[in-house]
């Protein structure tokens, strides 16, 4: 299994441009998450999904959109890039809710985004 | 608001030393997670615990729910343990997936 894959690894965007960060998992996990990690800060949840067709906002959803048309894919869309969106973005997945007795999240390698 | 504090922020130790990283949080939780972020950026879940103690190889995680405190211990530390260790808590609220993350402890093990 490839686990959780993310593309691209690195991208530079100009202010106002749009892009989609791709995330895919081949573990048949129901739950998928998008986090951002800013320097010196803890990971912050942007959006999550509990299954195909179901998404919900996390702690910092403004400026982002998501969709979950299949179990495998969970793309994150930035519509009008702003310098505040410069960050490292991590996608993660889990089979069951993270509050389950044994559940852990599996993380992708991250996408480094620079908005200039 | 749930705050998660980790200490120390940075830790440098010699190979073989016993390492302790601490995590304190401010509200009731249902579980606490420890994660490891490698120097290349990849993140791996190490433990999820809601009470007591868990052990995996040279890593031991403990939690004291009453004191709102958890520790991650590494025995016989090795340079490959050099990483950022992140604590995250799952609040007691029902029905959401929103972990609160600490800012991490950067561990460097010198050969």
Which characteristics define this entry?
heterodimer, A: 116 residues, 7-stranded mixed β-sheet, 4-stranded antiparallel β-sheet, 0% helix, B: mainly beta, 6-stranded mixed β-sheet, 5-stranded antiparallel β-sheet, 11 strands, 59% strand, globular
Query: What's the mean pLDDT score of chain B?
Result: 91
Give the fraction of residues assigned to helices of chain B.
under 10%
Main sheet attributes: strand count, strand direction, barrel closure of chain B: 6 strands, mixed
Gyration radius of chain A (Cα, Å) is 13 Å
Q: Stretches of chain A where pLDDT falls below 50 for ≥5 residues?
A: none
Distance between the termini of chain B: 41 Å
What is the strand tally of chain A? 11
Summarize the main sheet of chain A. 7 strands, mixed
- Write down the Rg of chain B: 14 Å
Can you count the beta strands of chain B? Answer: 11
Q: Tally the helices of chain A.
A: 0
Instruction: Determine the fraction of residues in helical runs of chain A and give it as a percent range.
Output: under 10%
Number of helices of chain B: 0
Give unreliable regions of chain B as ranges. Answer: none
Query: What is the structural class of chain B?
Result: mainly beta
Task: Give the chain pair forming the largest contact, with residue counts.
Answer: A-B, 28 and 23 residues
Structure report:
Chain A contains no helices and 11 strands. Chain A has 116 residues and is mainly β. Chain B has 111 residues and is mainly beta. Helices cover 0% and strands 59% of the residues of chain B. Chain B is built from no helices and 11 strands. In chain B, the strands form 2 sheets. In chain B, strands 2, 4, 5, 9, 10 and 11 form a 6-stranded mixed sheet that branches. A 5-stranded antiparallel sheet of chain B has the order 1-3-8-7-6, with no helix packed on it. In chain B, strand 7 and strand 8 form a beta hairpin. The N and C termini of chain B lie far apart (41 Å). The mean pLDDT of chain B is 91. The interface between A and B is medium-sized, with 28 and 23 residues.
């Amino acid at each position: 299994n490839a686990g959780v894959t993310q593309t691209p690894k690195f991208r530079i965007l100009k202010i106002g441009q749009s892009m989609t960060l791709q995330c895919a998992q081949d573990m048949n996990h129901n739950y998928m998450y998008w986090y951002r990690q800013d320097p010196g800060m803890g990971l912050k949840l942007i959006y999550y999904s509990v299954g195909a067709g179901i998404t919900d906002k996390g702690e910092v959803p403004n400026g982002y959109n998501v969709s979950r048309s299949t179990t495998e894919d969970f793309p994150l869309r930035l519509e009008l890039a702003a310098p505040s969106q410069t960050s490292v973005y991590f996608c993660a997945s889990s089979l069951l809710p993270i509050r389950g007795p044994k559940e852990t999240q599996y993380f992708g390698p991250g996408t480094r985004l620079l908005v200039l | 608001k749930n705050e998660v504090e980790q200490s120390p922020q940075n830790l440098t130790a010699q190979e073989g030393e016993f390492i302790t990283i601490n995590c304190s949080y401010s509200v009731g939780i249902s579980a606490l997670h420890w994660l490891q972020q490698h120097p290349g950026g990849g993140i791996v879940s190490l433990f999820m615990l809601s009470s007591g103690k868990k052990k995996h190889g040279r890593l031991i995680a403990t939690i004291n729910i009453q004191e709102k405190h958890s520790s991650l211990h590494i025995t016989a530390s090795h340079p490959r343990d050099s990483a950022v260790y992140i604590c995250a808590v799952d609040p007691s609220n029902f029905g959401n997936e929103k972990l609160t993350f600490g800012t991490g402890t950067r561990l460097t093990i010198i050969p």
